[in-house]
């Protein structure tokens, strides 16, 4: 305890709010999730964790509406709360206007809700970040929300454990994102996750959400299995012994 981290309404002498800084660490501990967007589509790909051998995998990608989806990393309960808020906003907007909720204004509404939790005592910031995909200006788009209530638009981004290495890979190949198909973007996401320390991919643990042609959907288990098999054929794992020989 520093004396300045008792609540979100207290600043330290350097102008920092420690509770917000602590919340920003939570998404870095979750299972990694990657989002990539180009002119053809936007994808969210994650490798899910299971709390034990007796438990099923926890979902990491979610459908918000027919044309918006998201992936999450951080405190799972907080991510569910954020997801419920997004879905509620979409339902209310569609009921009142008879059209789909615009992507960017939905992200702003979530950020406004998150900002309330950084201002008043008795609250704590959301301990989760979201990758949100949909359509902006008639093109696929990817937005990222942060526990400090800020949001950013990205071509590609990774959240979760060892995300720094994955983001370095995505930055290195950023110029290759344009023109790729959805499947090729999924391959790029898997390669980025490999940089984050995931060397082998079990198709049952992989989860993929795709926004394309104005619609969002999660790929079926059969589609994911086929995609992972093709990835493993194109990018086989090379052992250290094979590299030395």
Give the total of domains: 1
CATH topology: Glutamine Phosphoribosylpyrophosphate, subunit 1, domain 1
Tell me the CATH superfamily: Aminohydrolase, N-terminal nucleophile (Ntn) domain
Q: Report the structural category.
A: alpha+beta
**Element string (H = helix, E = strand):** HEEEEHHEEEEHHEEHH
Uncertain stretches: 240-245
Helical residue percent band: 25-40%
Strand numbers in spatial order across the main sheet: 8-1-2-9-10
According to DSSP, the number of beta strands is: 10
Global Rg: 19 Å
Biggest sheet features = 5 strands, antiparallel
* Global geometry: globular
Mean pLDDT value: 91
Question: What are the defining features of this structure?
Answer:
245 residues, alpha+beta, Glutamine Phosphoribosylpyrophosphate, subunit 1, domain 1, 7 helices, globular, disordered C terminus, Proteasome_alpha, 20S proteasome alpha subunit 6
Descriptive overview:
This protein is α+β, with helices and mostly antiparallel strands and 245 residues long. The chain has one domain (26-46, 57-234): Aminohydrolase, N-terminal nucleophile (Ntn) domain (Glutamine Phosphoribosylpyrophosphate, subunit 1, domain 1, 4-Layer Sandwich), CATH 3.60.20.10. It is 36% helix and 24% strand. The strands form 2 sheets. A 5-stranded antiparallel beta sheet has the order 8-1-2-9-10. The protein has a 5-stranded antiparallel beta sheet with strand order 3-4-5-6-7. β6 and β7 (151-154) form a beta hairpin. α2 crosses α3 and α4 packs across α5 (182-195). The longest helix has 22 residues, at 76-97. The N and C termini lie far apart (53 Å). Mean pLDDT is 91; it is low at 240-245. InterPro entries: Ntn_hydrolases_N (IPR029055), Proteasome_alpha (IPR050115), Proteasome_alpha-type (IPR023332), Proteasome_asu_N (IPR000426), Proteasome_sua/b (IPR001353).
